[in-house]
Specification:
- This is MnmC-like methyltransferase domain-containing protein.
- GO terms for molecular function: oxidoreductase activity, acting on the CH-NH group of donors.
- InterPro entries: MnmC-like_methylTransf, SAM-dependent_MTases_sf.
- With 413 residues, the protein is α/β, with parallel strands linked by helices.
- Helix content is 37%, strand content 16%.
- It contains 15 helices and 10 strands.
- It has a 7-stranded mixed sheet with strand order 6-5-4-7-8-10-9. Strands 1-2-3 form a 3-stranded antiparallel sheet, with no helix packed on it.
Amino acid sequence: MYELYPYFTNDGSVGLYSEADNDIYHSTYGALTEAYEKFILPAGLEKFFEKNSEIKILDICFGIGYNSKSFINFFIENTYSDTVYTDNINSSTYNGKIYTDNKSDKKFFNIYIKAIDIDKILAFLSPFVICNKKNLPENYKLPFYNDKISKMLNKPAANYIKYHNSINFLFYEKIVQNYPEILKNSEISKILNSKKYRSFFEADICRLFSLDRKKRSSYTPLRPLFAFLHNIYYRNLSNRYKNDLKAFTNVLFDFDLKLNDARKELLYDNNKYNFIFLDAFTPAKCPALWTLEFFKLLHEHLDENGMILTYSNSAAVRNALINAGFYVGKTFNYSLKKFTGTVAVKNKSLIKHDLSEYDLGLIKTRAGIFYRDENLTGLNEEILASHRKEVENSNLISSSKYIKEYKKQVEEV
């Protein structure tokens, strides 16, 4: 069976550990919080919603869907909620809804999200994953052994996000609609029915999935009964989420999940996106989606006033983005009170925080040598080997020497 290593992070959302890479996909202080702080809040979405009714998002490395789901959650909060989030989470105040319950005031939106991932099982599991588990045990322990992660758990989380469970229902509907084969996927069924993983999934959506499977199974004498039970349960569930999804009565929402290598997928994509969430695994282990050539491909797909957001603050990544034709800045995390990510744009005025003199200097060191993938077909191992060779043969100053000299200059000033 497909092996998962899930655990609850400190804001009640589920994080994943990769045994193969011996690394985590999500921060232990909060997987949902991390999505907000690195991709949603720095995007300035509340202002974008006021000026635009058509929104196109490209979510690269969708995984279990936190970035896309956080966007929809943010949209709901900023259209019908009494609280509007800003990039400074400590000063989140109500500043007016985009539209109200008055029909004449309502604004219609056209939201298109293209999500790409090569891991079909993870993507199919995305609508089932719990995003706001409440009342976690005070001394919560991992369901698998990992001393490093255990030590990072049970620390204070921002925990300021109200997550609408209806969003999982919304994404479930879209995935089943576009990929009906999910209902016949025995691996998904085994995982959802396993006692080992049960606590990490939404019971309502799991129950709906089970009824959907039986409803669409090959004919048995009980099939009409299962269809009847499904319809009753679906109606009750949709009614329960109706108020939550009130915003979507005025939204044309299209969720397009592609199970493919992002490099291949984008070669045949003619869309221009307003926001690109680049959430690929760390460049040092999986560089294929961090190369100069891939960023040039993203440049073709970004709207003139669009924005690429990523958690990476790597000098090599920033240098590749600059060489691909972007203006590059950085994102500030208000809860951690430090810069934690990177933003790339075509319109320089959209950058809120410029790269510092230190950042620009680091780009000119060996640490700034970017990854290359000339034909957009290279394997990670090949890209890493080629990059390693280029760094070894470089005459550029090492990053460690540069940092030492920079600190010395600062002390002397």
